[in-house]
Automatic annotation (TrEMBL):
Subcellular location: Membrane
Keyword Glycoprotein: yes
Organism lineage string: Eukaryota, Fungi, Dikarya, Ascomycota, Pezizomycotina
Protein source organism: Monosporascus ibericus
Transmembrane annotation, as ranges: 12-31, 38-59, 354-380, 387-408, 414-436
InterPro entries with a match to the protein in the record: Glycosyltrans_GT2/GT47, Nucleotide-diphossugar_trans
Entry superkingdom: Eukaryota
Protein known as: Glycosyltransferase 2-like domain-containing protein
Pfam annotation, one family: Glyco_tranf_2_3
GO CC annotations on file: membrane
Protein keywords: Glycoprotein, Glycosyltransferase, Membrane, Transferase, Transmembrane, Transmembrane helix
GO MF terms held by the record: glycosyltransferase activity
Length: 467
C-alpha cells in the first residue's frame, strides 16, 4: 500500500473515530439521548480501528536500506552501557556481543569505585582481545540510569551513540543495519525490535512452572510492543517509546545542554508540582520516553529499524513477582509520558495525528476489562443481543493477532493462551493502580536501594560482587 494512503488515513480517520467515540459514549452514558447500538459502534470503532489499520501497516513497513558504501560505520559509534552489577555472565556476554561489532568506543558506567574495579576485572580479557576499541570504565555514586548516562556524555567523541542496557545481546551485523536510518539527516533516534530468550523448558513436566509462565508473559509483552512500534512508525513516524534496552541517537543531540539538563532533572510533573510539591520527585525511570519525546518535539524523526540484524535479544528476566512490578512501572510511565506529550509539549497533535489517537490517548484509556465488558453490555442491551457470542470470539481472537509471529516461532506456547487472556484482564487492574499512583518515581522491579547502600561504603581495594 502506498505510504500516501497512510498519511491520508493518519490525518482524517483519527478525528472521525475520536469524535464519534466521544459523542456516542457521552450521549448514551451521560445524556441518554443516543441509541444504545450507536454507543456500541462508537466504542467498537475506537477500540478496533486501530488494530485493523495497524495490521495493514505492520506488513507495509519498510526498514532503512543498508548501502554498499554507508556514510556512517562502526568506527563512528560509541556504545554506552550503564550497569549496577558488572559481575554477571550476562553482562560480560553483552559486552562481547558489542565488541564483535567493533565500535570505536565502549563506555561502561557502574556504581561506586568498588563496582568500577569489578568492571575492570570482568572486562580485562575483552579489552586485551579488542585493543582497537577505545575503552572507558567509569562510575557514579548513585544507582541512577540517568546520572550514569550523563556521566559518560562528556567522553563521547563520535557522531552516533548507542545507549544499551547491560543484559542485551546483539548479532554480529547489528551496527551495520542499525546505522542505516542515520543516512537520512532528519533521523535523530533509532529503535530496534526485541526478543526475549525463552527460559529453559526442562521443568515443563511440572504443571505451568511460575517463572516460565511469567517469562512467557514478558515475551508476549515485547511481542506486542514490536508490533505497535513497527505499525505506528510506518503510518506517521510515531510510537509510544523507543526501548532503552538499545537505542541509537545522534551524539550532538544527546549533548545539547538543554536536552541533557532536562534529562538529568526531569520531575514527575513539571506543571502540577507548582500546586502539589510532592510531585517534584526526580524521575528514575522514563529516560527512554524523555529522549523520544524531545526528538519529536525538536522536529526530528524517529525510525524503527525492524530487521533480523537489528534484533536485540534480552536475557530471561521476567519472573514473579518482578514482572508485576515492571508492568506497574511501565504503566506509570505511559500515563506520565503520554500526558506530557498531549498536554504540556503538544507537538504531536500536528506532527503525529494518528499516534495521538492510536498511541497517546488509546494508551491511557484502553482498559481491556472495562472496554470489553462495556461492549458486551451495550450489545446485550441493543436489538442485536444474539450476536454476543460472535463478539466474544472477536474480542478473544483480537487479543492474539499481534502475537502471531511469536506463536509461529514457539508453537508449544499456544497452550498458554488462556493464561495470557486472563493476565490481559488482570493487567487492567495493574494499569488502574498505576493511574492512581502515577506520581511514584521509583524504579519498581529492581532493588536500587541495596546498590546505593553498597556505593556509600568506602572502597576496600578489591571487587565485591553485588546481590
Amino acid at each position: 500500500m502506498p505510504l500516501w494512503i497512510f498519511s491520508l488515513l493518519g490525518r482524517f480517520v483519527p478525528s472521525l473515530v475520536l469524535v464519534g467515540f466521544t459523542l456516542t459514549t457521552l450521549g448514551y452514558f451521560i445524556f441518554g439521548d443516543v441509541d444504545v447500538s450507536h454507543a456500541f459502534w462508537g466504542i467498537f470503532a475506537f477500540r478496533y480501528t486501530r488494530l485493523l489499520v495497524h495490521c495493514i501497516a505492520y506488513f507495509c513497513y519498510r526498514p532503512a536500506p543498508v548501502h554498499d558504501h554507508p556514510f556512517y560505520q562502526a568506527k563512528d559509534c560509541t556504545v554506552a552501557i550503564p550497569t549496577v552489577d558488572p559481575s554477571t555472565k550476562d553482562f560480560i556476554e553483552c559486552i562481547a556481543c558489542i565488541c564483535r561489532n567493533e565500535p570505536r568506543s565502549v563506555i561502561v558506567v557502574s556504581v561506586s569505585k568498588e563496582y568500577e574495579m569489578l568492571a575492570e576485572a570482568s572486562l580485562a580479557q575483552l579489552r586485551h582481545q579488542y585493543p582497537q576499541i577505545n575503552w572507558r570504565i567509569l562510575s557514579t555514586e548513585e544507582a541512577n540510569k540517568r546520572l550514569q548516562i550523563g556521566r559518560d556524555v562528556g567522553d563521547i567523541d563520535t557522531n552516533i551513540t548507542f545507549l544499551v542496557d547491560a543484559g542485551v545481546f546483539w548479532g554480529p551485523n547489528f551496527l551495520t543495519s542499525a546505522l542505516a536510518p542515520f543516512e537520512d539527516i532528519g533521523v535523530y533516534l533509532v529503535g530496534t525490535n526485541k526478543r526475549v530468550r525463552v527460559s529453559t523448558r526442562d521443568n515443563l513436566e511440572r504443571f505451568l512452572p511460575v517463572n516460565f509462565l511469567f517469562n512467557f508473559f514478558g515475551s508476549t509483552y515485547l511481542g506486542r510492543h514490536n508490533f505497535e512500534i513497527r505499525a505506528t512508525n510506518t503510518i506517521d513516524g510515531g510510537l509510544f517509546a523507543v526501548s532503552g534496552r538499545t537505542m541509537g541517537i545522534r551524539t550532538a543531540f544527546l549533548r545539547d545542554e538543554q536536552i541533557l539538563h532536562g534529562f538529568l532533572n526531569e520531575r514527575v510533573s513539571g506543571v502540577l508540582e507548582l500546586y502539589f510539591p510532592w510531585l517534584n520527585e526526580p524521575l528514575l525511570p522514563d529516560d527512554d520516553n524523555y529522549l523520544a519525546r524531545q526528538v519529536i518535539n525538536k522536529g526530528h524523526k524517529v525510525k524503527i529499524q525492524y530487521t533480523k540484524d537489528v534484533r536485540v535479544e534480552i536475557t530471561p528476566q521476567f519472573t514473579f513477582p518482578r514482572f508485576l512490578q515492571q508492568c506497574l512501572r511501565w504503566a506509570r510511565s505511559t500515563f506520565r509520558s503520554n500526558c506530557a506529550s498531549l498536554l504540556t509539549e503538544r507537538k504531536v497533535w500536528c506532527s503525529q495525528p494518528w499516534s495521538v489517537y492510536a498511541v497517546y490517548i488509546n494508551g491511557m484509556v484502553n482498559f481491556a476489562l472495562g472496554c470489553d465488558g462495556t461492549l458486551i453490555y451495550l450489545l446485550h442491551k441493543s436489538a442485536y443481543a444474539d450476536w454476543i457470542l460472535p463478539l466474544v470470539l472477536w474480542i478473544l481472537v483480537s487479543k492474539i493477532v499481534k502475537l502471531i509471529p511469536y506463536f509461529v516461532r514457539n508453537p508449544r506456547d499456544l497452550v498458554f493462551i488462556p493464561a495470557y487472556i486472563l493476565f490481559a484482564y488482570f493487567h487492567s487492574l495493574i494499569r488502574l493502580w498505576a493511574l492512581f499512583t502515577f506520581y511514584s518515581a521509583e524504579w519498581s522491579g529492581r532493588n536500587l536501594a541495596a546498590v546505593n547502600a553498597m556505593a556509600k561504603q568506602p572502597a576496600t581495594g578489591h571487587p565485591v560482587v553485588g546481590n
